[in-house]
């Protein structure tokens, strides 16, 4: 992989240098100026290549490549047809086989360092020390050859294993969902046990008419595509009823019932009654 990248990079760099030298002759540039300009050109070209490599080896991109490399061997058969897992399929064996054949984790060390297999394709640049006077930043060429550090490689491998395990669990769940279904004999039991209730509905005019009207209404609702709006209206009405009931209950329990003050009954003085009582007391028995 790195052989192709560096080979293309060197060819492009040679074309750029030839173009520069052809234009430099027309400006009568000195040899020292050409050496300095070519060194700057090589450095900028290498940094541009390094930026492109960083873009293609970002975490999301590299994990996507690893997942695609694994999916081609686990979720597809040898003919490229997607697999539909059945309960009798050997998912464990297919999972182990995909991990062994794919050797997906071997891609991480391959991306970790820029190291061509052909020594003639190696590219080197002199390192530079930062100089505040010339506004030159520190440049260590050996560090630019490292794409993934050891810690980063371990982290990527761990994250990929989690994704691979998720594919395995998904395949297991698909088989479980296909198994977890109602057996056919259960429908016969429901028919036998509910036969009397069905006869009551069929032979009762009121129940039969109500059932027929409900079926016709349901048919037209589904046929006209009114299921969604009807559910939305029902949900809105129920929400409003719940809100009104909650407000009424909150108002009722939030206001304490004040006790009625006891009014003192006024006693009116009756002069005639008092005179009559005194007269009766003064009379002899």
Shape: elongated
Number of DSSP strand runs: 0
The number of helical segments is: 12
Low-confidence stretches: 264-269
What portion of residues is helical?
55-70%
Distance between the termini: 142 Å
| Multimeric status of the protein | single chain
Residue share in β-strands:
under 5%
Q: How many domain units? A: 2
Q: Order of helices and strands, N to C?
A: HHHHHHHHHHHH
Rg value: 45 Å
Q: Could you tell me the mean pLDDT?
A: 78
Structural notes for this entry:
Residues 1-237 form the Sey1/RHD3-like three-helix bundle domain. GO terms for molecular function: GTPase activity. Keywords: Membrane, Transmembrane, Transmembrane helix. Pfam families: Sey1_3HB. There is one protein chain. With 285 residues, this protein is mainly alpha-helical. It is built from twelve helices and no strands. The protein folds into two domains: 1-175, no CATH class; 184-239, no CATH class. The longest helix has 30 residues, at 150-179. The radius of gyration is 45 Å and the shape is elongated. The termini are far apart.
